[in-house]
Design a protein that fits this description.
The protein is α/β, with parallel strands linked by helices. It folds into three domains: 3-240, Glutamine Phosphoribosylpyrophosphate, subunit 1, domain 1; 250-450, Glucose-6-phosphate isomerase like protein, domain 1 (Rossmann fold), CATH 3.40.50.10490; 455-594, 3-Layer(aba) Sandwich (Rossmann fold), CATH 3.40.50. It is built from 20 helices and 27 strands. Helix 18 links the parallel strand 25 (518-523) and strand 26. Helix 4 (127-142) packs across helix 5, helix 8 runs antiparallel to helix 15 (430-451) and helix 10 (304-321) packs antiparallel against helix 17. The model has no long low-confidence stretch (mean pLDDT 94). The protein binds 2-deoxy-2-amino glucitol-6-phosphate. 2-deoxy-2-amino glucitol-6-phosphate binds at residues 303-306, 350-352, 355, 358, 401-403, 491, 605, 608-609.
Length: 612
C-alpha cells in the first residue's frame, strides 16, 4: 500500500525523503513524489509514475529542491491510474498546500463536485487531491491553517494518514490520522512522520503512534499533538527494537502472515465504500441496469486461487440470480470455443491483473461478443485496462506469492456484485438484502476475531506437519472452499493434497483413506451438515484423522467425529467462506513453518504467471 515519509529539521529534506521512500518500496507502489518548502517559502513538488529511480532522474534534471522540510510518498493506486498527475503529493490550485495521503476518502466524489461547482479545477482523478483542494478552500475562507485542517477532517469520510505542508509556514509540518497507520519519529536533527517504522530506523528508534482523530504539528525543535477537539495531549514515546527486515513485515515473520492478519481491514476497505444507506452502490455499473436485467448466463474465468473464488461465486451468484453461473479455468476456457454472446457476462478475476491465461480468456470472450467485467487488485493492470468494467479490490499490494487477502477481498466483492445484480433483477427482497449487508458490515470484526487466537492452528499444524498427503472434503460452498485450502497447503508446504466434493469420495478416492490419513472436513454449510457428517463418519471408519472446520451452528453435528475442531462465528451463508478460509490459510502457514519452507517465495512459483 502507499508509503508516507515527512521530515522537518536542520538537514536538507530531499535526501532523507528519498532514503525513507526506498525503505518503503517493499510495500509495493506504482508512482512516487516529494514536496519541499524552501527557506524562501517556495513550495515545490516533483512526482513521477514508476520506480524511485525515475523520481531521482527527474530531481537531478531540475534545479535542486532546497529546504529542510518536506514530505514524500509512494503510491499504490486506488482511485486513478498510475501516472505522473495522479502521483502524490497533491497541491491545491493556489499552490499553497501540499498533501500526501494513505487510505480512501469515501465521499471524495461528492466533495469534488461541490468544489467544482465553486470553480475549482482538478488536475487528477484521485481522492487525495480533494483533500488538498478542500484544505486550500477552507484556508482561503477561514484564514487559519489549523482551522482549515480541522474543517477538512470534519468533512471527509473514510480512512486517512496524511502529511501536510503549507508554503506560508515553512517551518511547520502537519500530520493527521484516522484508520490508517501514521507515526511520529523524534530524531537528533529533526522530527519525522512515516506510515511505518521501516522508513525511520536509520534516523531514530523513538516514536509515537498516532491514534484516530489526532493531529500533530511538527517543527525542527518539537512536536505538538492535539486530539479531535484540538486539545493538546501528551503521548507516550516508544523505542523500536525491530531490525529493518522485521519492520518491513510489520513485525510479522513473513509477508504471508502479515497479509493474513490484514484481511479484516482489506475487506472493510473493499466493501464499505460500496454500501450506502443500506444499498449496494457500484458506480462502475451505473446505467447498466437494462444490460444486467437481460443477462441469461455468467461465466467466471480465472486461475488458481482466483478460480476458487469463481467456484464460490458459482454457488453464491446462482442462488442470488437464479441464472446459470459457471466457473472456468482460464487455461481451459480460452480453447474451449465457449458459447458466449451479449446475454452472457464474463467475469475475470485476477489479483495481479497480468495472468496470461486470464488475459487470453478475456480477449476470447470479447471476440465472441460478451462484455467482460474484471475484479482486479492492481490498478491500471493489463486485465483492468482491457476489461469493459473493472471493480478493484482495495487489499493493497500482496507481497507473498500465496494469495490470502486478495482472495478474501475478491470473494467479498464478487458476492457484493451478486447482491447488486440481484437487486437490479428484483431477485432479492429488502429483508434478505439487509441480512446480507448487515453481515457484510460485521465481517471485518468477525475476521479479526478469528485471527485473534492462533493457538489452535499452531497446535494442529504441529500435530500434522509430517503428513504425506491431506484430503479436503466439503459440500456446496464448503467444497469450493476446500479447493483453496488444498492449494494453500500444497503451494507453501509442498505436501500433496486433494480437495473433493464430500459426496464424491466414495466413488473411488476413498480407497486411499487409511489409518492416519488426515482429512480436513469443511462443515460450515448448514443445509447439508448431516450429509457432511455422514462423509466424515465414512473416512473415520477407515482410520482417518479428521480436522473439522465448523460454525457455532454446525459444530454440534461433527464435534464427536473430529480430532481437531475449529469453530467459526456464524455469518450469512453466502459470506461464511470468507471466514471459512482463515483456518485453512493459518493451518497451511504453520505447517509450512514447521517444515522450514520458504513461505513467502515457495519453490517453482511466481507471484504473477505471465507465461502459458
Ligand atoms: C495463489 O495462492 C497462487 N499463487 C496462484 O494460484 C494465483 O492465484 C494464480 O496464479 C492467479 O493469479 P492472479 O490472481 O494474479 O491472476
Amino acid at each position: 500500500m502507499c508509503g508516507i515519509i515527512g521530515y522537518v529539521g536542520k538537514s536538507e529534506a530531499v535526501p532523507i525523503l528519498l532514503d525513507g521512500l526506498e525503505r518503503l518500496e517493499y510495500r509495493g507502489y506504482d508512482s512516487a513524489g516529494v514536496a519541499v518548502v524552501s527557506p524562501e517559502s517556495e513550495l515545490r513538488v516533483v512526482k513521477t509514475k514508476g520506480r524511485l529511480s525515475v523520481l531521482r532522474e527527474h530531481l537531478e534534471q531540475q534545479d535542486p529542491l532546497r529546504g529542510t522540510i518536506g514530505i514524500g510518498h509512494t503510491r499504490w493506486a486506488t482511485h486513478g491510474e498510475p501516472n505522473d498527475t495522479n502521483a502524490h503529493p497533491h497541491i491545491g490550485q493556489d499552490g499553497k498546500i501540499a498533501v500526501v495521503h494513505n487510505g480512501i476518502i469515501e465521499n471524495y466524489l461528492e466533495i469534488r463536485e461541490l468544489l467544482e461547482r465553486k470553480g475549482i479545477i482538478f488536475q487528477s482523478e484521485t481522492d487525495t487531491e480533494v483533500i488538498a483542494q478542500l484544505m486550500e478552500y477552507y484556508y482561503r475562507k477561514l484564514g487559519n491553517l489549523m482551522d482549515a485542517v480541522y474543517a477538512v477532517l470534519g468533512r471527509i469520510e473514510g480512512a486517512y494518514a496524511m502529511g501536510i505542508l503549507c508554503k506560508d509556514f515553512p517551518g511547520q509540518m502537519i500530520a493527521a490520522r484516522k484508520d490508517a497507520p501514521l507515526l511520529i519519529g523524534y530524531g537528533e536533527d529533526g522530527n519525522y512522520i512515516a506510515s511505518d517504522v521501516t522508513a525511520l530506523l536509520r534516523y531514530t528508534r523513538t516514536v509515537t503512534y498516532m491514534e484516530d482523530g489526532e493531529v500533530a504539528v511538527l517543527t525542527a525543535d518539537g512536536v505538538q499533538i492535539f486530539d479531535q477537539d484540538r486539545t493538546a495531549i501528551d503521548k507516550p514515546r516508544h523505542t523500536i527494537e525491530w531490525d529493518v527486515s522485521a519492520a518491513e513485515k510489520g513485525g510479522y515473520a513473513h509477508f504471508m502472515l502479515k497479509e493474513i492478519m490484514e484481511q479484516g481491514e482489506a475487506v472493510r476497505k473493499t466493501i464499505s465504500p460500496r454500501v450506502h444507506d443500506g444499498r449496494v452502490v457500484i458506480e462502475e455499473l451505473a446505467g447498466m441496469e437494462p444490460y444486467l436485467q437481460g443477462l441469461r448466463k455468467i461465466c467466471i474465468v480465472a486461475c488458481g486461487s482466483a478460480y476458487h473464488v469463481g467456484m464460490i461465486g458459482k454457488y453464491a451468484l446462482e442462488r442470488l440470480l437464479r441464472i446459470p453461473v459457471d466457473a472456468y479455468l482460464a487455461s481451459e476456457f480460452r480453447y474451449s470455443e465457449p458459447l458466449l454472446g451479449d446475454d452472457t457476462l464474463v467475469i475475470v478475476i485476477s489479483q495481479s491483473g497480468e495472468t496470461l491465461d486470464s488475459m487470453a480468456a478475456l480477449r476470447e470472450a470479447k471476440k465472441r461478443g460478451s462484455k467482460v467485467l474484471s475484479i482486479v487488485n492492481v490498478v491500471g493492470s493489463s486485465i483492468a485496462r482491457e476489461s469493459d468494467i473493472t471493480l478493484y479490490t482495495w487489499a493493497g499490494p500482496e507481497i507473498a506469492v500465496a494469495t490470502t487477502k486478495a482472495y478474501t477481498t475478491q470473494m467479498a466483492l464478487l458476492i457484493l456484485l451478486g447482491v447488486y445484480c440481484a437487486e437490479c433483477n428484483g431477485k432479492i427482497d429488502a429483508e434478505e438484502r439487509k441480512a446480507i449487508l448487515d453481515e457484510f458490515d460485521k465481517l471485518p470484526e468477525k475476521i479479526d476475531g478469528v485471527l485473534s487466537d492462533l493457538k489452535i492452528y499452531q497446535e494442529a499444524a504441529a500435530r500434522y506437519f509430517n503428513q504425506d498427503s491431506v484430503f479436503f472434503i466439503g459440500r456446496n460452498l464448503d467444497y469450493a472452499l476446500g479447493l483453496e485450502g488444498s492449494l494453500k497447503l500444497k503451494e507453501i508446504s509442498y505436501i500433496h493434497s486433494e480437495s473433493y466434493a464430500a459426496g464424491e469420495l466414495k466413488h473411488g478416492t476413498i480407497s486411499l483413506i487409511e489409518p492416519g490419513t488426515l482429512v480436513i472436513a469443511l462443515a460450515t454449510y448448514t443445509p447439508l451438515i448431516e450429509k457432511t457428517r455422514s462423509n466424515i463418519v465414512e473416512v473415520r471408519a477407515r482410520g482417518a484423522d479428521v480436522i473439522a472446520v465448523a460454525t457455532e451452528e454446525t459444530a454440534p453435528y461433527v464435534k464427536d467425529q473430529a480430532d481437531e475442531l475449529m469453530i467459526l462465528p456464524k455469518t450469512h451463508p453466502l459470506l461464511q467462506s470468507v471466514l471459512g478460509v482463515l483456518p485453512l490459510q493459518l493451518f497451511a502457514y504453520y505447517v509450512a513453518l514447521n517444515r522450514g519452507c520458504d513461505i513467502d517465495k515457495p519453490r517453482n512459483l511466481a507471484k504473477s504467471v505471465t507465461v502459458e
